[in-house]
Model the fold of this input.
Amino acid sequence: MKKLNINTSRAGLFLILFIVILMIGSSAFTQNRFPKPEFESDYQQSQTTTPDPQAQIYEVMDLFVLFLMLVLATYFAHRKRSRHALFILAIVSVIYFGFWRKGCVCSVGSLQNITLALFDKSFMIPVVVVLFFALPLIFTLFFGRTFCASVCPLGTVQELVLIRPMTLPKWLSRILGLFPYLYLGLTLLFAATGAAFLICRFDPFVAFFRMNGSLDMLILGAFFLVTSTVIGRPYCRFVCPYGVLLGWMSSLSRTHVTITPDECIKCRLCENACPYDAIQKPVPEQNPENRKTGLRRLKMLLLIAPLVILTLGWTFSRLHPLLSRVHYTVRLADQIQREDSGQTDLTTLESQGFRSSGTPTKVLYDEALRIQKQFNIGGWILGGFMGLVIIWQLVGVSIIRHRKDYEIDRFSCVSCARCFNYCPREKNKKKTKVNE
Amino acid sequence: MENPSNNSKVTRRRFMRDSVRSVLALGIGAVSGLLIGRSTKQNIVWQLDPEKCVQCGRCATDCVLDESAVKCVHAYDVCGYCELCGGYSKPDAHELDTAAENQLCPTGAIQRSFIEDPYFEYTINEKLCIGCAKCVKGCGSFGNGSLYLQVRHDRCVNCNDCAIARNCPGEAFSRMPSDRPYLLKGEQGLT
Ligand code: SF4
Ligand code: SF4
Ligand code: SF4
Ligand code: SF4
Done:
């Protein structure tokens, strides 16, 4: 009974102590309110454990595997022309880069690290990340998108689950196909201003690789996974910003896989072989009449091009107050300003955190203004870029270039090798090889 | 079909492509070279600065892992070894004992062991800790601030874009070279 009393009174004391300290004003910073005692017993002080991050060697290994897989994918696509081998390599990629290495950092995401590092000198970038960005681009510049075929973990997941490909109407895939450009522009804008890593925020499969993640990431992953079973590579074709860069490289590539091993006999067998809309049908020589209308349309387009570019640039730059809100500092400055001007009574954790840090509001406002200005300029560039892209696409539609054979569209072909086996010349060649 | 003008068109186009390709290759090379020049050989990892942390509790909820990679750690040489521990007991606890209802930690992750009268040692059981920062707040407000949060690198999968860093109201997260992966308090932090 007595003991209990002591305890309760002690608890009371404890409470009073709390209240007193609360009144003095508490802070979470390290304070030596109670100095460390001199122990009489032979107490040994423990140490805070510091488990090491993953060893450096793994990063080097990733780089090595990336290089090796690029070489293999290129060899399988160009030399072996083997869908089978590419498929197995794709499984390896999903297992290694996806499930084992948990999907970070990938070449697609490295685009943001590169951009931020270019704009912010203090941003630390490891050599490995630079090479993850550059190697696939260089390979694509020489051999086409063999990286996409079997190395990129995001692409290969979609490749593996594609069961019943369905062709989308041409106009729809054209319109959806504009999104990667916009996404690329936004990614670069947000990365350059240090506002956000958009690709990582909306990574489709990282939650799947980790079997773990926030609800919205899991839903996003499930959505893309299900869609990929009937629509060929929806992320690659309608979202991936790195894919745009790869597409450009591929369009100029030194060599590229071809449908037929030697010559096209226009048998039309491959016409529907590509689930990614990358096979172009032959186009007959145009009569002068058609050519003239095409030329007239081209002139018109070039005439309105500056107008489109300027209008879109202006529109996006007008959006800068909205876009810049993605940046933490701008959001915070807005909240602080609304609190200070009495527009809101509600404080947020962010504003409380800011106030306890003791930074003057002026510093915050200046910083926010600087960022908004960047977004204003960035908006002009982004809008102008989108204008260029749209004009370029329209030019592509109005120039009708004569095409003799069934050919691959180098921009969108991911070198998956599906169409090879549709070509009778391929079978022919294999047969002669066996006979030899 | 094969007339000379057509042929020269083809060569002209090929020449154009060759030159653009070389320019692109040089461009990629230049950017990579520039960045490799100022890159680190180290890998980069995430860590939070305990002095900036405002104990909001998001570390427990926002990590991409179900069980957060952020855990509480204890700077033993900063601790006062008090029996009245602001990190251990609830402020309104009736008894300063080890009963679960009197402990601040929702999972009972802080273990206390008697050293000598009147001193106790507090240790975090990392298996139980969820990184909610309740004890950190208690210890910082009423004690020495020896309990604090750290990203534990045996657990963290090192996301390119840390999901907690995005939402941390103290802006406490930053990228660190992997040879200095912790921001420790006390003597360990000085070395
Ligand atoms: S388009 Fe993008 S996501 Fe798809 S395989 Fe290529 S790099 Fe990967
Ligand atoms: S999110 Fe930031 S402020 Fe909140 S507990 Fe974690 S480190 Fe502390
Ligand atoms: S109170 Fe929260 S942060 Fe502290 S030990 Fe318990 S679970 Fe970990
Ligand atoms: S980097 Fe990823 S795993 Fe590590 S603490 Fe942040 S969200 Fe969690």
